[in-house]
Write a structure and sequence with these properties.
- The structure is a homohexamer of 307-residue chains.
- In chain A, the strands form 3 sheets. Chain A has a 5-stranded parallel beta sheet with strand order 1-4-7-10-13.
- Chain A starts with a helix and ends in a 9-residue tail after the last strand.
- Chain A is an alpha/beta fold.
- Chain A folds into 2 domains: 158 residues, Orthogonal Bundle (serine acetyltransferase, domain 1); 102 residues, Hexapeptide repeat proteins (UDP N-Acetylglucosamine Acyltransferase, domain 1), CATH 2.160.10.10.
- Chain A is globular and about 65 Å long.
- The mean pLDDT of chain A is 88.
- At the A-B interface, α1, α2, α9, β13 and β14 of A face α4, α5, α6, α7 and β15 of B.
- β14 of chain D pairs antiparallel with β15 of chain E.
């Protein structure tokens, strides 16, 4: 009976509209204020990429005469969108949104956005070193152009450097959303709070995780599936995790870590070390170490191919 | 010569149009009936998310006065789209589509869709526990709002709980498509047939695989790259895999499994156990066990950083 | 002060417009010529899929009467788009774009595109074997239709076979972009230069990496997270990596490799072998070997669940 | 006060939701059935144009080899969309939609749609004469291609000939919607029930109105603003207009009517006549008449330009 | 020479960027504030139509159970969009935008928008009479549903009644934009300041113009091309037009005006009069008058069809 | 029977694919070359409007600092799109497209496009006078901003001035398409070949037609429905219209023409004249004339409102 379907639906709507059923996860967001928007943040990332690597993205031709027009317009547009998103982020994180002063928040958003834009030249400088590292480190790469255009790691590192700059300025929520965008696109999950030096490269990259308090030196290379993670973390007297304690590894300069290695806890991997794939490392490693997995076992073969 | 290109193309079109070249993979889909649509299923997922977590997705403001309007419209729209997609799924799986009774299928689709909607309140209840688990388990999380809005695992688990409800009702194909959408977006691959308890969390998540006959208790936490998989499976006398046999692990309550661990076969990981990263486990593990990888080897360092 | 924001922005625009700050990564792309376009390449892939698997994608119904119309139009459209993208790829890779002869390049683009189209029947033949392998190898699969429609590995292998055909013809850049599209969508990273036989399957797939000089026989199956990678590579006298040396594994017929295994270097995994998950293999393996990880250690359990 | 706004809105929603306030204009449309869709009908018109004038619209190239592929696919797509829209139109006009037999309606929709498609060759033949008339009649036209591509009258006449064919077959509502689409685009309002011969042309066209029972011979030319309308119409004993009585003019062969002329009632304008602009004609006109407005008056000029 | 083109372009950019070349028409719009948006106003009109005529527009099904959900959500969305657009309109008209108080304007926008929404029930009541008049007055109309769905005049009158309500509340600019949207779509140009009674109908409508100070009674019917316009208007001592003087006609109840008639100046057309087509009327007309054009002349026929 | 529908469709496809049925209207367009595109020309018009009236269209804010960036980017984009469209137009008009030299055409397209851009400053200067005329001539106008933003005549005149500049340079087809876009949007049909002076205004505008050889002086004002048209035109010995003969009116400075007036043939309306509405004028008019329609007749009133 049709009416049966409709009575089911009506009953479900009524239950789902009960405040107690959603209030513990309901976001108390400020009336008339929009949530941060994934599609606006995609524009933020795309405009930043166009500004940082002129000629690769968007429609811009880059005759010397006209490059400044494009950078000018892209930067203005970036600024406008960013102010809105930062403002939305500030409202999102506010616990009692009814109370705060809107025009003050708006002016903070303008300040943060313009600070970010003033950091773009430095971000470009760092990214140029990352591109160089990827190019030199991959025998399959034909040109730096191909690296910028095709390599997922460059996208992930670009998002990280943007997100890290925003987070350092004090912008809430938005940096995390930007790094999750790269995570979804590339499978590379770099927490925006991590600290990463120059000439950083990631090969292939799917499954890489770099935790919030990680510190990575210069000229470090990671392969796919590498985790720089935390061990279990201490709880306070109420059983809640104590936030803000350094709990991820320090990777010094010139380290290479092969595929699927898991490095956990506030340990140090000394400069120039090589960590083999698929290892589980929870203790510090001296400089110039080379660590590989214990030899696998040969076991009896049985017809059928299985295990 | 231009004509040369066109004769190549013409020849290819003719070959590709030969029925014998495509018939072994050709889908005998019912005339005038659409295939299930990925973009319609994205709407299904988005509408479900808006209904389950009011205020986070879509344009909805959530003044107490108006929340029921939004839930009402979103639920009606969800119902309409879902009826079409379930109907398409029913047609897809039918081996002799010419024969079946269309109006009966249509009425089944209505029934399944309204059953699903009546399960949404329970789905919300479960997801609230998952959000709580993710929030408590991550020292970097600032609020439940951030968890819902940013964490890929919440997206993957939401899709899983939706897909599992549909599959339990009896809907074919659609559940698998919904879980693959989350797989593509997050790198987390949860089979909709798996059984998963409350307070389930996945950290980072890229590369997680949870097989079709897995059973997971309450308060379990997985890290990125964890596999709950099958060993080789028995074949019947014709050499075809025997379907429907339990072949994935049982993970009891309060278990934590670290990054890249591979747990294979119908084994049991006892309650409260901790499985370290990068291990290969094919035998059952007693409750409160702690298993970690055999120590890696230190090998001789040679200049150049390679292995 | 508002003016303060604007002076920051103005200063940043000026710095970012300085040629020296972007010239090392600037792409010297030919005036008036477009860069290759991701969205055009998505159309290339979608049209190819519609042609290869008629009835699954797009709006095409496949009455025997009309299937040739659809294959005809899709192939014509594919040709047109592909000519443009190949042309863009040829221009991209050119170091001194001012010098080359446009109409010659255009005619090369036409030639390459029509060569590719004449390879589509063979690509379909290979893919049909891959679909069959996936169907037979997965007890959860209900029909070949479901495999084609839902399994990410089929998408990744389709993109690989397309990209490999283009690369073999001599098309630059575009093959890499097409394989990166699948990488982003599925987490499976197959280099278009790899050589892969018939009846190839990948289960789940996230994190799989198959390097450029890998050679894979017939009837090989990989699970998620498997790497067929390179060890460190030799440098020339200038310290640059020597390009084009075989540096990835050879996997012979009928091999199965379980989740997260890392196989590195120009070694051979002999026919019929089984490689267990999470192992690190850098030496050749005899035919019909079975290799698994050294047993993990049981360590002392401590309350709290951590490591 | 904010609450004041919300109480206003809430009150309005309540009033607007009262059934008695909308029921006299409410459309009793059949549950689960869509209304006819303007955007679907735009596709109908665009596909028809592509089929009728190959090479002008859409992406089709028209190499002799490939033209049949495009016509095949466009015709199949047209058929599919048209079946849906005709079905929607049949449901719309039904007074007691609960009662009728769905599958019968569906089968009528298929029949009407395929009848329409079988009329396309004749529609093309007629339109070719209209293009010729426009080309010969306009000294500013450079080629027939320009006429087809640019002249709004060709668009309006195309829509009319499509709508008229549908209406003649018996399709309700849709023909009117298609003619209103041309009306909105061109300002030319031709009722689909009008009868119009070959070699018909309209110059400029804005404001032309051709009523439902008009009959127009061959080789007739109208200028902008011409009305072929009705005088007041007879009422039945209840004061309602009597429907279906011929009430618009008959325009015989080879007539020209200049801008803004208003021809009203079931009168006949004899073959070969010329009607000057801005006249008001409510009586029949003999063949080969020439009718122009009474001379305007010269009145006293006053400085300032006004009247 | 290529450089020649670029120097032309560079020169043009420089000239066009000179402030004196655009400052007389430059809009001094308030920094960071958007201009009113045509596409947002289309949403305003579409949402209003969905609310006023439930079941005709949008996706809404109108089961009695669910109609209030749709009206609720549509009204909330209308309110949100309208607040933004009214705010943009208030900023646009401000001569010295730097000076005014933003939060005051914002609160005015909220007030105006909610006032408008509280007028929607009365707007619906008026429109129902207009639909009835169109239905009764057109022998070709099959149902009120067809009138609402297809007749351009209903669209134009709906926009007028919306625009008039906004203008009466005090909203600047937006009403004019809404009436111009209908003008572009239908060729009917009704100034939002005009006063129009119940049961108003326009047949065909292209070219109708109704000036700002026109007053139209109940049950009036206009045909296409009718102008209710102004004669020349008085200038003040500086030669500028004196604004705000009544300068358009008064049309009393039950008047019919046929196609292309031009009625100019603050004159009165008495109740129940009939004005024939193509006449030029600049003097008042007594009630129950019937006015038609002076008879056209028959002139000598000459072969060739011209004039 | 279903097969019946399909056989109808198949038969129609075959007939429609016969070359003789479409060849007389078939466009012999050059292989691989696109037709001119309406949506690209909409971009041309929108970019031109943004450049000509900075701050009204698009997203541009117009801080003095940034206005040149926006004009720079918009002009570069306009140039790129225009080159393609002019090239498409050149190919369209070519009778034997196989023969001509592509690179020569391409270089003509570049030349024409850059010539057009160098005319933009003069186009802006003219349009500023038109805006002023509209503002001064309409007592309902509140600001020049409102005139630019809302008045359809400004859109039509802008398109005319753009189209006229292109046509004067020698661009084929495109100018006509641009003027038809304004015709469709506003109901105002100005042939791009017409010559129109400064301070030109059109009030309301629907139905205005200005023919190809019209010459209009400075400070002329037209109302809706005014035609500046041709009488019948002379034929050559083959019965074809002789092209290029002046056949439309000359309107001298300071003339006002009221609604629906039809002025036909190469006559002159002397400076400062006023032409009343609804008149039919086929003879020249001395300067400072005032011409109005012959008085309408009062006829016997009959109950019922009809004529």
């Amino acid at each position: 009976m049709t009416t049966d379907h409709f009575s089911r639906i009506k009953k479900a709507i009524n239950e789902l509209s009960q405040e107690q059923s959603y209030k513990s996860v309901c976001h108390p967001h400020f009336k008339d204020h929009k949530m941060p928007s994934l599609s606006a943040l995609e524009q933020v990332v795309n405009l930043s990429r166009e500004i940082l690597f002129p000629g690769y993205y968007g429609d811009s031709s880059i005759r010397p005469d006209s490059v400044s027009y494009y950078i000018g317009v892209n930067t203005e547009n970036l600024y406008t969108i960013l102010v809105d998103q930062i403002f939305a982020g500030l409202c999102f994180m506010c616990e009692m949104p009814e109370k705060f002063d809107l025009s003050e928040r708006k002016s903070i958003a303008h300040d943060y956005a313009s600070q970010f834009i003033s950091k773009l030249p430095e971000i470009r400088r760092m990214l140029v070193t990352d591109v160089e590292a990827a190019f030199l480190g991959d025998p399959a790469a034909k040109s730096k152009g191909e690296v910028i255009f095709c390599y997922p790691a460059i996208r992930a590192i670009t998002n990280y450097r943007i997100a890290n700059a925003l987070l350092t300025i004090g912008v809430p929520l938005i940096p995390r959303m930007i790094s999750e965008m790269a995570h979804s696109e590339t499978g590379i999950d770099i927490h925006p709070r991590a600290t990463i030096g120059e000439y950083f490269s990631i090969d292939h990259g799917t499954g890489v995780v770099i935790g919030a308090t990680s510190i990575i030196g210069n000229n470090v290379k990671l392969f796919q599936g590498v985790t720089l993670g935390a061990k279990s973390f201490p709880l306070d007297e109420n059983g809640n995790p104590i936030k803000g304690i350094p709990r991820h590894p320090i990777i010094e300069d010139d380290v290479v870590i092969y595929a699927q290695a898991t490095i956990l806890g506030r340990i140090t991997v000394g400069a120039g070390s090589v960590i083999g794939g698929n290892v589980w490392v929870t203790n510090s490693v001296a400089p110039k170490s080379k660590i590989i997995q214990f030899k696998p076992r040969d076991v009896l073969y049985t017809e059928g191919g299985g295990i």
